[in-house]
C-alpha cells in the first residue's frame, strides 16, 4: 500500500493530510491535522515574508515531516497558496 501526504500551506493555516492508496479500497484518509500559522501577518508592505514568518513555516513543515515519516509516507507534496505564491521573496521562502 502506498501512502501519500499533502501539505496545504495557506495564509492562515497549514494542513497535513495523509492518504493510503489500496487497489481494493481506493484512497483512504489516515490523518488530517492543521495548525494555525497566520502567515499573512508576516508579510511586509512590499509583500515579502519576514524572517519570523519563514521560521514559523519552517518549524511547521519540519514537524509535519516527522509525522509523515512515522506514517511511512512515500510521497510528500507541499502546495503553497497565496501567502507564498504572491510573496516577493518566494524564492527565499522555498529554500
Automatic annotation (TrEMBL):
Pfam families: Ppx-GppA
Positions of the Ppx/GppA phosphatase N-terminal domain: 19-94
A single GO BP: regulation of transcription by RNA polymerase II
Family: Belongs to the GppA/Ppx family.
PANTHER family reported in the protein's UniProt record: EXOPOLYPHOSPHATASE (PTHR30005), RETROGRADE REGULATION PROTEIN 2 (PTHR30005:SF0)
Protein name according to UniProt: Exopolyphosphatase
Species: Staphylococcus gallinarum
Taxonomic path: Bacteria, Bacillati, Bacillota, Bacilli, Bacillales
Amino acid at each position: 500500500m502506498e501512502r501519500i501526504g499533502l501539505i496545504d500551506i495557506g495564509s492562515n493555516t497549514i494542513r497535513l493530510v495523509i492518504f493510503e492508496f489500496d487497489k481494493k479500497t481506493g484512497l483512504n484518509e489516515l490523518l488530517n491535522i492543521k495548525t494555525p500559522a497566520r502567515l499573512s501577518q508576516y508579510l511586509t508592505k512590499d509583500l515579502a515574508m519576514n524572517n519570523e514568518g519563514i521560521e514559523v513555516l519552517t518549524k511547521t513543515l519540519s514537524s509535519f515531516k516527522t509525522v509523515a515519516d512515522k506514517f511511512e509516507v512515500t510521497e510528500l507534496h507541499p502546495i503553497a497558496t497565496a501567502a507564498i505564491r504572491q510573496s516577493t521573496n518566494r524564492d527565499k521562502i522555498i529554500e
